[in-house]
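I am still getting used to backbone structure tokens and would like to learn alongside you. To get us started, please write out a protein record for me. Once you have written the record down, we can walk along the chain together.
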Amino acid sequence: MSDLESSIDRLAAATGFSGVVRVDRGGRVELATAYGLAHRGWNHANTVDTRFNVASGTKGLTALTVMCLIEEGQLDLATPARSVLGADLPLVDDRVTVEQLLAHRSGIGDYLDEETIESPTDYVLPVPVHRLVATADYLAVLDGHPQSSVPGERFSYNNGGFVLLALIAERVGGAPFAELVRSRVCEPAGMRDTEFLRSDEPTGRTALGYLDGGGLRTNVLHLPVRGSGDGGGYTTAADVHSLWSALYAGRIVPMDRVADMVRPHGDVPAESMRCGLGFWLHPTRDAVVLVGSDAGVSFRTVHDQAAGVTHTVLSNTTAGAWPVARRLEELLTP
């Protein structure tokens, strides 16, 4: 057993970690290990190919889907959201652009303002979650939130902005958002296990999300029954690695588009991060990050192209990924 594996094993045991850890370095899988249970009621263990909800990790897929549509000439970074929305969501400022939505600089009112939520396990959506199945269903929760700042003025993390991007993508792409993600991102990347699953109909190899480390209470009453542009995609550790590999090989969008997405579009001192277009950026080195956090979900993946290192943690508990992710950062940072 390697020092890396033994260190993660000890931490997983000490924290009751439930999920999957994968580390790739120098072109080989250095660590791929599963812990805990995917389904506590049936005592089904997590495996390295279990599918996990990645919450806001989905935003990277949304951004790439939008970039694909831009590359195809169906959108532009400067496209005003209003030109696609028509009369829908009248409180969205007419000056808001696709680029501002991608960079969290649109200033639109957010249906899920994380700065006002003390705990993700306390939050309850304003509509019954079973009604949020298709992206158009989210209009019911996106509407009625006044513009909070001038478009382009400042960074403000915005979940609703990425649902709005999914809606825009559907309308110009002529297909349901999940299908656009599959055809534009997952298929060229070889991500065979990534899709938007219904939380009330979990399929094989899918982890249920648990609100805490003990008990059987899942997140099925907390999150939309089917996710959209801001979260709710399910994936595996292997598919996350495939995403990074395909991204930096130019198989999803050309490398000039990738470069634009992973260059800093703003500093976010409160998160000790920088922000690109749909991706977080490490504050001091050229590593790219996706993070997801929600009731029954915690996820973090870091890709350092220059160092040839990727590390990914997927967990089916609300905060289970964070101790392991911090330890990997300590052990693997050059």
